[in-house]
Amino acid sequence: MAQTEKKGGLLRKSSASKKPLKEKVVLMYDEIFTTEDPSKCNPRFWEELFLMKVNLESLEGKLEALDGEELMKIKDNINCLFQHCIQALGEEHPIRVVNALQTLCALIRGVHQKNKSTSGFDIINMLVGFDKAELCMKNLMESLDALLCAEGSESLKSLCLKLLLCLVTVTDNISQNTILEYVMINSIFEAILQILSSPLSRREHGYDAVVLLALLVNYRKYESVNPYIVKLSIVDDEATLNGMGLVIAQALSEYNRQYKDKEEEHQTGFFSALTNMVGSMFIADADEKISVQTNEAILLALYEAVHLNRNFITVLAQSHPEMGLMTTPTSPVPATPVTPLGTTPPSSDVISSAELPLDADVQTSNLLITFLKYSSIVMQDTKDEHRLHSGKLCLIILTCIAEDQYANAFLHDDNMNFRVNLHRMPMRHRKKAADKNLPCWPLVCAVLDLMVEFIVTHMMKEFPMDLYVRCIQIVHKLLCYQKKCRVRLHYTWRELWSALINLLKFLMSNETVLLAKHNIFTLALMVVNLFNMFITYGDTFLPTPSSYDELYYEIIRMHQNFDNLYSMVLRLSTNAGQWKEPASKVTHALVNIRAIINHFNPKIESYAAVNHISQLSEDQVLEVVRSNYDTLTLKLQDGLDQYERYSEQHKEAAFFKELVRSISINVRKNLAFNTLSQELLLKEFSTIS
Q1: What is the pLDDT of residues 488-541, one digit of tens each?
Q2: Which parts form a coiled-coil structure per UniProt (predicted)?
Q3: Which of 4, 509, 538, 542 has the fewest CB atoms within 10 Å, measured from its CB?
Q4: Given this model, what pLDDT does residue 123 score?
Q5: Is 488 in contact with 543 (CB distance < 8 Å)?
């Protein structure tokens, strides 16, 4: 009896100390992580490995646990694993292909992470070995290309794109990722285009394909000939370009929708009730809480398409039903998780609705309208770094559009009128415009509205000088087109003039603070020259003679601001300080504005005295203006309708380098946590024939 108890005790003790069983795949990883060839004892080792469900955590964890020296000892086995993964990509059985793709993801990520901490070995040598690198990478890229172009599983295509995104983003600075040399030599550009041109593939993989292309285009773009840049610049296939446009439009639409939902939720919440109770004193703080993570990756893709490919400009104006306005979808639209800068595409159902025939009852939209709405949201708050970068990129894209002859043609086309509901920052002194009161006019008016909105809402202590300069340049480029083509745009020009004058007033009021950080005279000169443009050429592009009269009225009405500006620049240009030269340029630029003020003010005073009127009405001032044009003398100013064209390499290289770095980090982070789950894949391939 005692013996049995003892035996029982021993059994229980043994059971308690028993280690949990390891998965077979983990045991096989253990064999790889030794200096011995695992196929020596088991010739079918590699064949069996790819039938096992991959344990990403275990594989990456093992790589992480080794130091650089230990990793070098098992280099041959790592090379062997990498090569067998590539061989498995050519297998007929999809489960082996899936497992090979996921193993490659873990290997590339794990070895790169190790390379970060101990840069004592070359990444290519560690993964494939120098002697076999060229052939192995060629085989890998050809296999991925074949899988992406085949008519097979959409899940496999998705995993191929994830692997490529993993490959591209393992380093923060993608230009330091030497593996990408093989992606340049063995191009997958055509496979990406094929995905974008097919409605089914585009819905499933369009987002990943577009982000991948945007990143590849930025690999060493200033240092060598990048084949993806060359190829993207000459794409002229309409279906492909439209497909790319639809993917970008959907991603931006999704952002706009999320922002609108948050805004509505915010307005109906407790804070809204509190604001109504105590007035609007908290409105700015309340609005700051409405925040949806910006999507720089998709914005970069739009920029590269607009900047590199002239044919893409036509896609901006391609009409489609307003995304998100389809009232009776045929199937319920699934909720889309927020994926900031990530690689998971937004809800695909809305893209499919965008490809339906146009319905007369549905508001039509296009990529440019969607982009303008997106810009109006991200440009509201430039205090956040991501939004500042997004706002800057939006203005760079608009700069490229404003310089393009064809883009200007459809922007100013009277037959293409749209209601564009831009988001406007809540301000105490203005009411929110009702959507139904929005005018229906050419798209250039929405661009100008966006610029005016930015000018009015960002006069603050942390003054975004760079964004203001870009904003004024866009307005100038649009005016140059209008002057050149004699386009008489029926726009509320007074709003622009008022915004520009208030900007000058702000620069003068904050002279000391701003001069400590910025050369405000560059911006002041640009603003003054916009007025000079209107004065010199306004009769060729302002809609009516009365519009030209109103310009003079505004200059005369606000003459105190121009007088103060002249006093300020005269003071600084007569001193031998650092601002002497830039200030004197503004002094010379003010000559015609001062001539108008000095010519008409005495006439207005005389008219008031003769008619015994203490304060003249607008109509009376306009009457004086119209009857005294003949005696006004203005100087002809050269170069007002000339501008320096946008150049990325010389001025924006540092910005794009930092932007791409930020996108790379975020794409990698998103891949690591969200997108490598096997469950769906294994369900799809649960049987091996």
Answers
A1: 999 999 999 999 999 999 999 999 999 999 999 999 999 999 999 999 999 999
A2: none
A3: 4
A4: 82
A5: yes
Going by C-beta distance under 8 Å and a sequence separation of 6 or more, which residues neighbour residue 149? Answer: 190, 191, 194
Q: Are 522 and 469 in contact (CB under 8 A)?
A: yes
Rounded Cα–Cα distance for residues 43 and 585 (Å): 81
Q: What is the mean pLDDT of residues 244-257?
A: 95
* Residues pairing with 418 in the sheet: 441
User: Quick one: residue 395, left, alpha or beta (phi over 0 = left, psi -120 to 50 = alpha)?
Assistant: alpha
Which tokens hold the place of 201? 């593939």
Q: What burial class does residue 608 get, using C-beta atoms within 10 Å of its C-beta: 0-12 exposed, 13-18 middle, 19+ buried? A: middle
**Dist CA 550 CA 625 (whole Å):** 9
* Beta strand 364-365 pairing with 320-321: antiparallel
Phi and psi at residue 36, to the nearest 5° = -85, 150
With vertex at residue 526, the alpha carbon angle to CA 522 and CA 532, rounded to the nearest 5 degrees, is: 140
Q: Give the whole-angstrom CA distance, residue 463 versus residue 520.
A: 10
The DSSP code sequence of 627-660 is TTSTT------TTTT--PPP-HHHHTHHHHHHHH
Report the candidate in 292, 294, 193, 291 with the shortest Cα–Cα distance to residue 247: 193
Closest CA to 48 of 29, 74, 71: 29
3-state secondary structure of 320: strand
Rounded CA-CA distance 81/95 in Å is: 17
Residue 346 pLDDT more than 70? no
pTM for this prediction: 0.87
More confident residue, 392 or 685: 392
For residue 493, give the nearest of 537, 427, 548, 557 by alpha carbon.
548
Quote the CA–CA distance of 341 and 321 in Å, as a whole number: 26
CA distance 221 to 652: 12
| Dihedral sign from CA coordinates of 114, 115, 119, 122 | positive
> Hunting for tokens 């119209």 — which residue is that?
626
